[in-house]
Every structure is written in structure tokens, then in C-alpha cells.
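## retry 2 of 3
previous attempt timed out at serialization; input unchanged, resubmitting
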Amino acid sequence: MGRVVLVPVVLLIAVATCWGGGPGGQGQNAPGELTDMSLEALMELKVSSAARKEQRVADSAAAVFVITQEDIRRSGVTSIADALRMVPGLDVARIDSNKWAISSRGFNSRFAGEMLVLFDGRVVYTPLFSGVFWDRQDTVLEDIDRIEVIRGPGAALWGANAVNGVINIITKPADETPGGLIAAGGGTGERAFGSVRYGVALGSHSDLRLYAKYLERDHFKDSNGTDGADSWHMVRGGFRLDSSPSGQDTLTVQGDVYDGRLGETYINMLPDSGTRNTVTPVSGGSILARWKRSFSERSDMSLQLYYDRSEQDLNVIGEKRDTLDLDYQNRFPLGSDHEITWGLGYRFTHDTIANSSYVSITPDSQDNRLYSAFVQDDITLVADRLHLVLGSKFEHNDYTGFEVQPTARLLWTPTRRNSVWVAVSRAVRTPSRGEAGFTLYASTPASQQAPPVFFKFNGSNRLAADELMAYELGYRAEFAEGYSFDAAAFYNVYHRLDVLSQGQPFFETSPDPPHVAIPGYLNNSGSAQTCGFELAADAQPLPWWRLRTAYTFLQFVEEHAAPDAIPWDPKGESPRHQLSVRSSLDLPRDVELDLWLRYADQLPNLAVGSYVTLDVRLAWKPVKGVELSLVGQNLLHDRQVEFQQQILNTKPAVVGRSMYGKVTWMF
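## retry succeeded, writing output
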């Protein structure tokens, strides 16, 4: 670590120590909100994603991790995607200023389709590739209540594509955000950003929240130190209305709209085969209504309806999509030992594709329907000690027809501070619209000869669903006051994975110019086996100091594809080791100092080396409701490639050192 790196780190720590007078120094010892929440309270946190009902984290028979609002605030992150770096078992890599590759337990890609992502109950993955455009998932970060992350299959409750995990982003109810909030800042990477939010009570039973947000993010540099063309501008606004007309009923209506411009540089894309700078306009919006009725502590129902509209022009291909989704859920006791949760769902989506000569999806407009049902029985075998959870999702989709995704989970809680769980699950990933009908031309080293030689990759409408059989084991414990531990191990067996097989070259005259095409055909001949474990530990050795550590180990035991498959190596695209260590100190005089050290192993197949990063946040609350913060990110290096996309290639950028300042005023 050179002097240029040490200077900002030492400066920030020195300023914090001097200003605060040190933990034992003079001045009022004013603990922050983070250390006000004990580890015992964290263990008692309620989550809803693991069983589609509220339950303690300790009572969840799944690998659950919760990012709290305080975790987000004290990490200094400015995006939801970067907040996910806290989670053990997740691989979060930044491709450029506005793109991420995020997945769990392997198979990462910008278009990774093995994670299901929900935003306040609304599914936000796109059927275009069954993945998530992370640049469009945003809100006022201070309004996020928590992010629940389930590693491992959640398909028995949430359906296809919840193969390697579920991410559920949950915002606060409107009655928890009264008054105003103004947050603004800027710096070397985060050129400018700002949020305005105001919450107001509407009578004695209803509350309304309105917000607007703007961001302008600077471009990154490429590996040669040249300025990239990946700057990012986005504006969005929205509202949330929560009403409780009776003691039994709650009604939520919320919506948002956004409009943005994303810069990117395509590489090796025809017809020019070189680099091409473009600006992708994106826009969209959604509106959601949800009605909940509680009959008793063990009985309730909910009915949810949402509409989502998205539009984008990726320059090489465009898409307009409308989605309508209806979901019903009911929970009730059956005798004294059974608790049944069941539900029905229907989703309709319509798209219009703007094809180009070299990237296309056929047909250029299509309707798709998804019908689903699920049932789960939480069986009490020994009261307060042993539970068996049996359930399955049943779906019918337009690509693979009927799919069954069962699970069996056993939870043993010998004491309130210890729990052990084991699970066996089947999950599937159904083909996306793109995989079923895409054609993509890409350049080869012989693209400039006469006649030119191009790759021609083709999707297939005869793909079966990718299948996962997952075996999991977990243990949670609170060993002593201030110390907790969470471990999960898994063994995954994948069948029918998508790979490309190479065909015989042929000559064709369209698209222009006449060329030799080397075809690649998508099929289900891939298989793999993976194993690993994820550890998370919390410690509060002193009342004003908390440490949170996460470690991930991932091993590809076996991977196989048909002999004619184009080289396929998911092992070399996933880090084997990952480590995250966060330290949060509440210093006197309302000063907070946070340090976040992360390590990610190499990705040999993508020529990405291992790296270590350090983020430092220094904050001060001079008066009630006002917070001033200074954040330094990636302080240990000035350039690091984290990922390289291989399909629909965009130029990777280096993630460099940056700093920003922020003012937050709540009134």
C-alpha cells in the first residue's frame, strides 16, 4: 500500500479520533443507533421471505441474511447493488459505472438468472433474460427498512428462477417516515446526488410518503487509464400510501417512475467489430396495491396486484414490456400442530422487441402467461423445539409447461439461542424470452478478411428448464452476550444447464455483407456440482464497537458439457474465497467511524485478479436531525477490474478510488 493510499485512510481515522477525543476521551459519549440495537435484538429480527410469513431469523430453516437500514447507512454505499456486498454467499462484481454482475453460489454474469429479486413484493427480474437490470432498482436508501437475502433455493415459495437465492428489498411503511428528509452530496465518482422525501399523516388511519431522487455518476476509466463512456444519469420519483381502516385490515398503494441515460461501450459487436460508444435511454414505472387482513396470530390473508412498464433501447436491441401480476396468499392453523400457507398467482407480460441486423429476438412481439400455486405445511413435531416444513410450488409457463419445485426442511431449536436446520430442495430456472428466440452475431479474428467470418449464436424454443437439487445444512448461535454466529453449508447438483454447441460453418448472404457463419446452438447439455459454506459472525467487544465478518467458500466439484460445446468454464468465473470485515465505532461527540475491508478471489477465466478493497466512512451529527459524512471507497487501489461480460460484450471498466461528501437533514 503506497503513501497515496495511506494518506486518506490515516487522515480520516486521525480526524475521527481527534475530533471524538477517542472512545475514552472527553465529551459526551453518544452511542449511535447501530450499537443501540443489541446483537440479541438482531437475532430477534423478523423476516418474511424465508416462509412468506413473519418469523425470527433464528426460526428460519434457510440461509437468511438481513441488511438493516443501519447497515446501509453506516456502510456508505450509494446503491442497492453495492449494499449486497455485505452478504455472505453473494458474488457482487461491478462491470462499469452502471452495471453489476450479482449471483449467489456461482454462475455469475451480468445476465445471471438464478436469483429472484423482489422490491416490496414486486418481482423485478426481466423475462428478457430472467435476470435483473440493477441500474433500475433504486429508491431513497434511507427509506429501505431491510434487505432480506435467502441463499439457496426459494422456489417452493417463490417459483422458478429462485434457484440460488432470493433477494427481497423492503421499504418502511409510510407511518415510519413522517416529516421531511433532504440528502445531497457529491464527489469524485458520485458526481452529484440528491433525495427529497416528505411523509404526512392523512387522518388517523392513513399515511402518505412522496419522494424524488436524482443521481449523476461519473464515468470509470478502462484498464489503459482512458476515460470510459459509461456515465450514468437517473431521476425517479414515487409515493407510498399505507392505510389501516380497521384493526384487521391494512391497505398499501405505492408506485414509482424513473427515467435515465446509461453510457456504455460495445466491443466486438458487428458491423464495425471495434468499440462503439452509445447511450441507452431507459424509463419505466410501476404501481402496486396490496390488501392484508389478519384473523388471528396464526391466520391471515393478502391480495396483491401490480402493473409494471419498462422501456429501453440498448442500441443493438430495444424492448418495451408491460407486466400485470396478481397474487393471493392465505395462512391458517390446521389442528394444533399444522400451520398451512397456500397461494395462487397469475402473471401476464407483453413485449415488443426492436431488432437490429446483428442482434434479434423472434418473434418481435409476444405475450406470455404464468400460472402458479403453492402450499406449505409447517408441522410442529416437538413444541418450541422441532419443526418440519414441507411444501412445493406448482407452475405452468409457456416455455417448459408444468413444473414442480418441492422442498423439505427440518428445524431444531434446542434453546432460544441455538438452532440447527437441514433442507433438501428442487428448483428450476425456466428459459427466458431471449434464450428461446435470440440470434446474435459477433466478430471473430477473421471478421476483416474476404469473405468475413462471423460467430452466429442461436437460442432455442425447445430448451428444458435448468434443474437444481440442493442439500443444505445450517447452524445459528448466540454464544454469549455480544457474540453471534451463523453458518450454512451446501451441496448443489445442476442438470440441463444451458451451453452453446458449435455447428459446421456455412456461407450466408444476409445480413450484409455476405459472410461465413460459425454457428453456436443453445442446448441443455451442461451439468455441474458445487459445494461450499458461508460464515457470518457478529461481535460487540465494547459498547461502542461492533465487528461484522462474512466469509464465503465455493468449490466446483464437477462441470460437464457435450463434446461439441463451445468452451464453458463457470468455475473460472466465480471467486473461490470471499471475505468481508466491517468495523463500526461510535465515538464521543456524535462521531461515527466505519471501516469496511473486502477480499475477492481471482476469476481466471475472465482474467480478473484477486483484490482487496477498503471503504472508510466518517460521520458527525452536529445537531439533532443533521448528519455530515465523508466516505472514501476502494482506497487500497486506483484501478481494479472486477468482472468482464462475455455475452453482449460491453467494455469492462476499472473500479477506482473515489471520495464523496454527503449532508442529510431530517425534519
